[in-house]
Amino acid sequence: MNGKHFETFKASVERELMHHPVVVDNAYTAWFAQGHLSLDQLRHFTVQFSVFSNQFLLAALNRVINADTLEAARESKEILLNELGVIYADPERPSAGAPPADAEREGDPALVSTTGTVDGGRFRFRAAHFEWLLRFGAALGLGFADMGRRRHGDAGTLFFCDELFRLYGSGDCNEAMGASFAVENWAAAGFWKELIQGLERVRAEQVPALPLAFFTWHDKLEDNHRDHVWHELRRCYDSPSFDEAAFLAAGATMLDAVRTFWVGLYEARQQAMGSARRYASSGRGMR
Question: Which regions of 73-162 does DSSP assign to beta strands (E)?
């Protein structure tokens, strides 16, 4: 191990990244999980999430371009091309039969897979992650022109997107690895489950046709991603170019940006509620 102590470093990672406020105390997703959303609140969330989801493609491409090894470039292409609609090919996965009874929630087996590789996979337009999100938005009255573009993003959303491009796609392998590690472990820490819990209540009470596959598929995938980035970190730790401090700093900065995104959503919700209360108390809301 070249005199390095990975277990000691792992404890530092757990302490400095896995206990970040956005991982352990996300006020917005905790509220969202209760399912007490108005449709306007859900539309605002959907638009902001669509901006992050679509702009992530730029960060993912930047990561491919800036990869320091062929292996890293290929790993990055796995993520980018799957985002764009290349379905993972898995020779051990049975061929898709009849879709499940709740295909919109579980995902159509002809379009999704959580294992395998894009090498030899089949491209389908409808398998693109942003198109899944478009179908979700359509159930709320949102169209293609309403979602995904920078002009739709709030300040906190755009800050998050820009930090993803800068750090996740960094040409410094330590920064890129730290940002990727932080994002994947944040994503696997449970926020998808909180979103799904809230959306299931919305679906049951307000929008019966609301498709949840975008969210349920990502939740299923995250444990695999988390295991992968821990394995990658262990493999890279012994490299002479590995820099513990740079890795941790980039990871913490990336999580700060993630938190800015969610805080922005939480504050927008509070501002909207405050405006509604002021409108009602003025008497105009009673006319």
Answer: none
